[in-house]
Amino acid sequence: MSNSWKNILIKPEATILDALGVIDNEALQVALVVNSEQKLLGVITDGDIRRGILNNLSLDTPVTEIMNCSPITAEMSSTKEQLTQLMESKSILAIPLIENGKVVGLETLQRLLETTIYQNPVFIMAGGFGTRLRPLTDSCPKPMLKVGDKPILDILITNFIKAGFVNFYISTHYMAEQIRSYFGDGSELGVKIHYIHEEAPLGTGGALGLLPDDLPKGLPLIMVNGDVLTKVDFERLLDFHNEHQADATMCVRKYDYQVPYGVVSGEGNKVTCMVEKPVQHFFVNAGIYVISPCVIDSVPKDYHIDMPTLLDQHMSERENVLMFPVHEYWLDIGRMADFERAQTDILSLGL
Predict the structure, then answer these.
(1) Which Gene3D superfamilies match (predicted)?
(2) Segment 91-97 long-range contacts (CB within 8 Å, at least 24 positions apart)
(3) Which domains, from first to last, does the chain contain?
(4) pTM surpassing 0.90?
(5) What is the pLDDT of residue 27?
């Protein structure tokens, strides 16, 4: 998603001249007309302006006279493949992204078709024992268990490579040699892979303290558990983190839980409310994070800490830890039932 989409928002009282200035100054070739609540009213392209001029409209004419009032839009949760297919089928170069009726971004066909190379480190946690998947993990580390015909870790790394990421760091502990011998230094994949070995388990956050000092300066790091199967748009996640200048961004997944009983509320011995088998809504940690350098630098070497505890410390300091809802496919392969489901899901995921 373009980082400069907010610069192309204009009000309905703006003039054609205003729209022309926005289109000329920005590289997105479009202006979005929105109301005070950021609801999309119309879209203006260079072609709309030219047609208005040919119809003898002055440059002082309100943009409402030339805008397309029924533009093609897409939901923010749409995948890159869906957006590309939609724009190509409609012969359009840009599409507004909508969430809850409001404009939240703009995607361009050019950006979708080009491959951006990201130097941001990708840090994969692959050192766990996988005890809930025994006996499968008695002789194989969990990230190396095959889903379909490839190890989980191979699928995860390939997904990052397709998104343009080239610098990988893998945290190992249990049966580390199997992971090293399979991936090597990453040269066969056209990327760089470095290994961070934990002599003793340091928790999901403690491994950050073992990262080398020569990480790319000033760039946030994407951190992910090595047992996650997902189609999360990592580029959009990174754009979100950078746009909001967060200390850390946690991917979260909506989780609904239905209480299997009727729930009764009361005051004293008086019943005030009864709800039969209510559904409660939660956001759960998806095991994917974007971490800024200030958080990485705060973890001492050989220091045991879990990510929730680490993020809680930074929340109390600056209140700048954000969450990024995951709408795409996501599966934490922690139990045997998850592993069996993954074998079926992989056939239709295109991973």
Answers:
(1) CBS-domain, Spore Coat Polysaccharide Biosynthesis Protein SpsA, Chain A
(2) 93/29, 93/30, 94/28, 94/29, 94/30, 96/32, 96/40, 96/43, 96/71, 97/1, 97/73
(3) 5-113 (3.10.580.10), 118-349 (3.90.550.10)
(4) no
(5) 67
